[in-house]
Specification:
There is one protein chain. The chain has one domain: Maltoporin, Chain A, CATH 2.40.170. 6% of the residues lie in helices and 48% in strands. It has a 22-stranded antiparallel barrel. β10 and β11 form a beta hairpin. The longest helix is centred in the N-terminal third of the chain and has 16 residues. The protein is globular and about 80 Å long. The N terminus is likely disordered.
Length: 756
């Protein structure tokens, strides 16, 4: 136990030890400003200010803010828990950081990903490296890096009196009756600043633009849903953050505590819902400047307590009256043939702990060059268990993962230099990833117990014994290499190039989920395709070799950018079918290493059209294409966004700005056959947005999907949002294969923000 907490203890001592690292006497470098930003590196895009402000009232999901970027999408999940998808890669294949913290989901369905822990109203900047990222931006990922930062506490200007700041906001969205608000208050002197941020959001189920299903029943007697209502899409969440910062002439210390409480969040593409999620995070950062360079240190700790069960649209009383199915409106408490009792839900619990420690030195090398050297430690601890369910139906505790451990030890070195009009970033990173898990057990540990005495239901006893006898300790030694280059021959053109070898080790749920029993496997699914998943102890790390390029041209008030990319991934973690391997049915899959190729391009443009009606007119547009292929099985990769385009006509006049947006998506016909991914039809949507800003007030309002178009989300997965969701036979009340999750219908929203 001492080993687990020792790195955090060392990190907490760093502010006191800072001067020890200085080889030269401390040199005064002037005022340290929290808001300082270094220039955007090659192949990076930064979102901030107006771009973020106009979308924040339209969604409670911070991942949705990424749709401002060409080639970036969101994989549908809960109302505040979408998963970013960039260039065909998603979830843990991306390096996602929130205020410098590498956060991992603690849930077999990844219901609590990193971006779910920051409300959109708190997001100040998003920096995205699409495709190739410097090794200093993080490791253990083969795709883009997404670095999200919240607003820092504000200090008073030098020589000024202490200042107080306050900001309050509220929003309402018609589709799903979403409502909520945010509050920010701060106090700062020249050397000390403190700030509080709070946000709350709640919504009912949203409505699609058309009826998308043929049944109305749910898992509860007498409870029905309209044919256009998307079951299990309601949510409620509250976020709190307290920040304290201190500075002097050479150092800045930033301490933040955040807490999230989510009493409920439904998931239309998962068979369970989140019935509680409580997360506490402590994040301490130090920046000190010395004669030899800059020292940056960070320590963070996260504690997650997560619960899942059936929400109101899914089956609560688990059992049946006539061969495994209750008729709509029937008696949901009658139980046979299993026995006289049935399970009042299927509670599932996850306890996660994430610890991080980083130490980085930045040394100037002459006038134009600098070197970065860093050490990182990341530790994940995970327990995932399912309590005894019902009055003796399942007598024991099912351990999905017990004493799960995943430790990362990283060392990197990076050089950044400028030679005339060319900038280079070249870095090497080495990581050791050590993983282990303890012995497991199923609901049944003795063959004579219920249910079905004399039978090993789902082979739980045999499979847990085989898993416990296997060597579960794994060590991966991973190497990353990245080179980024920017060439700017003149003010009218810029060219960027990136080459990288990136590596990602499997996650705990990919390696250690052990049961092939249908009911258990269906609980493990973080891609939302309706299938069940089983882990693989013998998985190898993914290794991606990526080439990314970009050219940007500026002329006559217009900017054009073309960004092609190609990635070859060895040992890509895909899946093979092991049960129910028939067409047009949900399946049981096992993770397996294959080889894959992902390639595509993005083209974007923006410019000024001129003036009309005493207002500035502008045009923005982008088009993105991604293709993903499994080279081993010749199958298509799952969750690849089809050809899509965005177009916006903008107008600005004084305090007012308006936007008319078009969103266009082609048919999705290249789908994953092993996952039985359902094709989706193409569609076009129109959105209207407007903003009024005149301090101290900002008002944002708009209409999304103006014409109430019915369409299916290409990255929405399979609809399993209502009914008796935890079984798979072809009975009429069970989730039916072949129904994609639909997109929301017309939504009118308004957001009001007031700043003191």
């Amino acid at each position: 136990m001492l080993f687990r907490y020792k790195p955090l203890t060392v990190a907490l001592m760093l502010p006191c030890l800072g001067p020890v690292f200085a080889a030269d006497p401390v040199v005064e470098l002037g005022e340290v400003r929290v808001t300082a930003r270094r220039p955007t590196p090659p192949l990076a895009t930064r979102l901030q200010n107006e771009a973020l402000d106009r979308l924040q009232p339209a969604s409670s999901d911070s991942a949705a803010l990424l749709r401002l970027l060409p080639g970036a999408q969101t994989r549908a999940a809960g109302g505040s828990s979408g998963l970013p998808v960039i260039r065909g890669l998603a979830d843990e294949r991306l390096r996602v950081q929130v205020d410098g913290m590498d956060l991992l989901a603690a849930c077999p369905n990844h219901m609590n990903p990193a971006l779910s822990y920051i409300d959109p109203s708190r997001v100040e900047t998003i920096e995205v490296y699409a495709g190739v990222s410097p090794v200093s931006a993080g490791g253990d990922a083969i795709g883009s890096a997404v670095l999200v930062s919240s607003a820092a506490p504000a200090f008073a200007p030098a020589g000024a009196a202490a200042q107080r700041t306050a900001e309050a906001g509220a929003f309402y969205r018609s589709n799903g009756q979403a409502r909520g608000g945010n509050l920010r208050a701060g106090y700062g002197t020249e050397t000390l600043a403190v700030a509080y941020d709070g946000a709350y959001a709640k919504a009912d189920n949203y409505k699609a633009g058309k009826a998308f299903k043929t049944y109305t029943f749910t898992g509860r007697a007498g409870h029905t849903l309209a044919l256009d209502e998307v079951g299990s899409s309601a949510y409620e969440t509250a976020n709190h953050a307290l920040a304290l910062a201190w500075r002097n002439e050479t150092s800045l210390v930033d301490l933040r505590y955040t807490r999230q409480q989510t009493p409920f969040q439904g998931y239309p593409n998962q068979r369970m819902d989140m019935t509680d999620n409580t997360s506490d995070k402590l994040n301490l950062a130090l920046t000190s400047r010395y004669g030899w360079g800059t020292l940056k240190a960070r320590a963070f700790y996260e504690q997650i307590d997560h619960e899942m069960d059936f929400g109101p649209d899914k089956r609560y009383w688990y059992g049946s009256a006539s061969g495994g199915n209750n008729p709509p409106g029937g008696n949901a408490t009658a139980c046979s043939p299993i026995g006289p009792t049935c399970a009042a839900g299927m509670p599932m619990y996850t306890e996660g702990r994430n610890t991080g420690l980083s130490l980085q030195g930045e040394l100037p090398l002459g006038d134009t060059d600098k070197a970065r050297i860093g050490l990182e430690y990341r530790a994940q601890r995970l327990d995932d268990w399912w309590a005894p369910s019902g009055a003796g139906m399942w007598p024991g505790t099912f351990w999905n993962i017990r004493d799960g451990e995943r430790d990362r030890y990283a060392l990197f070195a990076e050089w950044e230099g400028r030679r005339g009009s060319v900038t280079h970033i070249l870095g090497l990173r080495h990581e050791i990833v050590r993983m282990d898990a303890g012995p497991v057990q199923g609901y049944k540990t003795v063959i004579t117990t219920a249910p079905m005495p004399g039978m090993d239901v789902g082979n739980q006893i045999a499979e847990s014994a085989a898993f416990n006898a296997a060597d579960r300790s794994k060590t991966d030694r991973n190497w990353d290499l990245a080179w980024l280059m920017r060439y700017t021959p003149d003010a009218a053109q810029t060219y960027e190039l990136g080459l990288a070898r990136k590596t990602r080790s499997p996650g705990l749920y990919e390696r250690y989920v052990w049961s092939t029993w249908q009911m258990a496997a269906l609980m493990n699914n973080f891609v939302g395709d309706g299938n069940g998943y089983v882990g693989n102890l013998n998985l190898k790390p993914e290794k991606a070799y990526t080439l990314s390029a970009a050219g940007e041209w500026r002329t006559d008030g217009w900017t054009w950018r073309l960004s092609p990319y190609y990635s070859r991934v060895d040992d890509y973690i895909d899946a093979v079918c092991i049960a129910n391997c028939v067409p047009n049915k949900f399946r049981i899959l096992r993770y397996a290493n294959h080889d894959a190729t992902i390639y595509g391009a993005e083209l974007s443009a923006r410019g000024r059209l001129g003036r009309a009606f005493d207002a500035d007119l502008g045009l923005e547009g982008s088009i993105a294409y991604t293709r993903g292929k499994n080279r081993t099985s010749k199958d298509n990769l799952y969750d690849i966004m089809p050809l899509n385009a965005k177009l916006a006509l903008t107008q600005a006049r004084g305090a007012w700005s308006w936007r008319v947006e078009g969103e266009f998506v082609a048919d999705k016909d290249k789908v994953s056959s092993v996952r039985q991914e359902v094709p989706t039809a193409g569609y076009g949507l129109v959105h209207l947005r407007a903003s009024y800003r005149a301090k101290p007030v900002r008002v944002d309002f708009g209409i999304e999907n103006v014409f109430d178009k019915g369409y299916d989300l290409p990255l929405g997965g399979a609809y399993v949002g209502q009914g008796t969701t935890m079984t798979n036979p072809p009975l009429p009340n069970y989730p039916q294969w072949g129904t994609p999750v639909p997109g929301p219908g017309r939504n009118v929203y308004i957001g009001l923000n007031w700043t003191l």
